[in-house]
Write a structure and sequence with these properties.
Length: 182
């Protein structure tokens, strides 16, 4: 694993999210990994990029032209790729990354994360993904997916593709296939 893509909100989140995302960036840099993300300077996305850059890390952004102003494209990244469409953004982020961390986010984050999960489910790719469970943010999603299994619309062997970790180090260990710290 050489690069990690982080999906997360372009809104401000909670103080705990800011702390967790700052730690995630530092841990990514500490491990010598390249950070890939959506290229914005707004909200938690900006926190992520700024923390990685401050730690001396390599940060690649991918942002559609239409969002350059709306999401305030980051101007200090190692590389900023400006693409035409959302589809191109997602495809490029996928290509640049070896694994994915999903931090707290809304519709955009969910859309990106679930596209990766469905890709795994259908064996379109084998890149691992983990949800960073800051203060139990994803517990409701886990309960919903259990409900989907009970309703027999999600196969149990696919339910396990949704994995969470409560710290940055545990999330990156999981992506690297290392044993979970107790
Ligand atoms: P949100 O979680 O809604 O704050 O969105 C987080 C990021 O996902 C933002 O950079 C959005 O622009 C991005 N996003 C929203 N919808 C999509 C989509 N359909 N494809 C790719 N990225 C998206």
């Amino acid at each position: 694993m050489r690069s990690v893509c982080v999906y997360l909100s372009s809104s401000n989140g909670r103080p705990a999210d800011v702390a967790a995302i700052t730690e995630l960036s530092r841990e990514i840099v500490r491990r010598g990994l390249t950070l890939v993300y959506g290229g914005a300077h707004r909200g938690l996305m900006g926190v992520l990029a700024d923390a990685a850059l401050a730690a001396g890390g390599k940060v690649l952004g991918v942002i559609p032209q239409a969002l350059v102003d709306f999401e305030v494209a980051h101007t200090g990244l190692t590389e900023q790729h400006i693409v035409e469409t959302m589809h191109q953004r997602k495809a490029m982020m996928f290509t640049l990354a070896d694994a994915f961390v999903v931090a707290p986010g809304g519709y955009g984050t969910l859309e990106e994360a679930f596209e990766m999960l469905t890709g795994l489910q259908l064996s379109y790719h084998a890149k691992p993904i983990v949800f960073l469970d800051v203060e139990g943010f994803w517990s409701g999603m886990g309960a919903f997916l259990d409900h989907a299994v009970e309703a027999q619309v999600l196969r149990p062997e696919m339910r396990v593709l949704f994995r969470t970790a409560s710290t940055a180090a545990a999330a990156l260990d999981l992506l690297a296939g290392l044993p979970r710290a107790s």
